[in-house]
Amino acid sequence: MWCSTLGGIMILTLSLLAAPRAAMAQPAGKLPRIGVLAPGTPPEPWTEAFRQGLRDLGYVEGQTIALDIRWDEHHPERWPALAADLVRLRVDLIVAGTVAAIRAAQHATRTIPIVMATSADPVGDGLVASLARPGGNITGLSGMGSELTGKRLELLTAAVPGLARVALLLDAGDPRRHVRLHAHEAAARGLGVQLLPLAVRGPEEFVGAFQAARAGQAQALIMQGSPLFSVHRARLAELALASRLPTMAADVGYAAAGGLMDYGANQVANWHRTATYVHKILHGAKPGDLPVEQPMTFKLVLNLKSAKVLGLTIPSSLLVQADEVIQ
């Protein structure tokens, strides 16, 4: 009898030790509920990367963690309503995938932890107090938007021999548009390139912007990072080819949509890394005490089909730098 009881206790103990680590994150019977504000429409690679990150940490969706994913379906104006919906559901944490989504979550709650899957300039955008000590209820990953401006322009000059004049497409609705402009101006001066700034308020002004770029004798065009441009990347790529303008974008996804090239933080890797923040916060860490991480991997994508349409021959020195080449 005693041996039987002891054997039962040992089996129970072993089963508890073998339980997924994530199960210890919450009191017994309470499933941690994570709200996700994801750009685009399902399926998208970043949400699968986030799920894989959770699985790598021992979480099992539906058993040790629950996900409530809300998609903007390429309509960023929906973010405030989607964020409010997650707050009403009393989720334990919100993961947000764009600056607009992060802002919407920030306005919806000052108490629920918010994890940024990416943000070009979280300090400059007023999302956190500093990278080392974010404060408040927001932390996560930075996309290093401004820091990569010079690199993008350098890559564009390598792709277009003799490049002397570049149009810059800006989002007129971006409150930090002038900061983005100054960063591009500084990079252009360093490369001996003239810059032609063009600001648009919406997709109805895209055609006029490309016409102005051609009229201004621009030989290429570079786009700032913006949800407006990400949503309409295919249309912008179409206009760039029709206007015979080689184009570099901060939006990783632009080249796949038909544009010539894009360069930025690897968003899929960022979303995978986001799971570690979720794990730490569910185990008691305060978001304001978790430093904002800068991306560890970057991605250069070249579209050779678009290069052929533009009459460009991409030099081998640039091809060897590419992480992905679309044939």
What does this entry look like structurally?
It is a single chain. The protein has 327 residues and is α/β, with parallel strands linked by helices. The chain folds into 2 domains: 147 residues, Rossmann fold, CATH 3.40.50.2300; 148 residues, Response regulator (Rossmann fold). 39% of the residues lie in helices and 17% in strands. The strands form 2 sheets. Strands 7-6-8-9-10-11-12 form a 7-stranded mixed β-sheet, sandwiched between helices. 44% of the residues are buried.
Rg over alpha carbons: 23 Å
CATH superfamily of the largest domain: Response regulator
Q: Which topology of the largest domain does CATH recognise? A: Rossmann fold
The proportion of strand residues reads 15-25%
Structural class designation: alpha/beta
Largest sheet: 7 strands, mixed
Strand order of the largest sheet: 7-6-8-9-10-11-12
Gross CATH architecture of the largest domain: 3-Layer(aba) Sandwich
Helix and strand string, N-terminal first?
HEHEHEHEEHEHEHEHHEEHEHHE
Q: What's the CATH class label of the largest domain?
A: Alpha Beta
Distance between the termini: 72 Å
Outline type: elongated
Number of helices: 12
Number of strands: 12
User: What is the residue-mean pLDDT, rounded to a whole number?
Assistant: 88
Low-confidence stretches: 1-26
- Percent helix among the residues? 25-40%
Q: How many domains would you count in the coordinates?
A: 2
